[in-house]
Amino acid sequence: MAIIIDGKKIAQKILDEVKLEISKLNFKPKLAVIFVGNDKPSQTYIRKKEEAAKYAGVNFEIYNFPAKIPKEELVDKIKKIQKDKNISGMIVQLPLPEPLYTSDVLNSVDPSIDVDCLTDTNIGKLVMKTADFTPPTPQAVLEIFKNIGLNIKGKNITIVGAGALVGKPLSIILLNKEATITTCNEHTKNLVKTLKKSDIIISAVGKKDLIRKTMLKKGVIIIDTGIAFTNKKMYGDVNFDEAVKKASYITPTPGGVGPITVSLLLRNLLVCAKKKY
């Protein structure tokens, strides 16, 4: 049986550290959230971020826009909102409605307050190892490795999913740390063969039961960052009940990567706030 990684415990430690640092500032940082449409899971994530922000002593404000807002208007609104000098960090809550999910919208956020690290500027800094902070979910994976005392240098790591939020930046970060990386997408042939060779599997797709026990070697470490909802219940990409019997370490969903991601978003906010003021 695997050791189940307690994401809430790791997150609380980070949040307490952030709260202490914020209490030493002579101002209160503010996190601005751009929310377009009314996606139900996104509303849940935003609520979690608001709860953590208030705990840490951060001002929190949501800017709501209709799903059918024109892209040019949304970009203009974002640029106007971030002129508020009290804002230390800004995120565009993803997913955006399909017509708006473009680099134009993400790049309208000033890189100096881009706490999700989604702008071209900050992704470029990630590649060149000059970034002031890293995307929260990929960093959450590193925090988990640190927590279990794992040195990833030379390890065979498979990332399932190549999205902009997790898969792509995480592959860059892990390559920079000298791990051996295989990145899989929907066109990957013989996924099972690849997974069975892996020391560590990090999944970031958002598809329930994508990874089953027959695809795993004994003792593998599994970090599940994927999120899917079925009948209003949250699941990861990995069938947890099966995988827990074969893995050495595994993250649950919920209660695994998610809480750590939220706490690291606020740590990024703290970095931005210190640089700004």
Main attributes?
277 residues; alpha/beta; Rossmann fold; six-stranded parallel sheet; three-stranded parallel sheet; 10 helices; 39% helix; globular
How does this structure look, described?
This protein is α/β, with parallel strands linked by helices and 277 residues long. The chain has helices at 7-23, 40-56, 71-81, 103-106, 120-127, 136-147, 167-176, 191-196, 240-243, 257-276; strands at 3-4, 30-36, 59-65, 87-92, 156-160, 180-184, 200-203, 221-224, 228-230, 233-235, 249-250. It has a six-stranded parallel sheet with strand order 1-11-8-7-5-6. Helix 7 (167-176) links the parallel strand 5 and strand 6 (180-184). The protein starts with a strand and ends with a helix.
Task: Report the top-level CATH class of the largest domain.
Answer: Alpha Beta
Number of discrete domains = 2
- Could you give the order of strands across the largest sheet? 1-11-8-7-5-6
Detail the poorly predicted runs: none
Write down how many β-strands occur, each being a DSSP E stretch of 2 or more residues.
Answer: 11
| Mean pLDDT across every amino acid position | 94
**Topology as H/E string?**
EHEHEHEHHHEHEHEEEEHEH
Strand content: 15-25%
Global structural class? alpha/beta
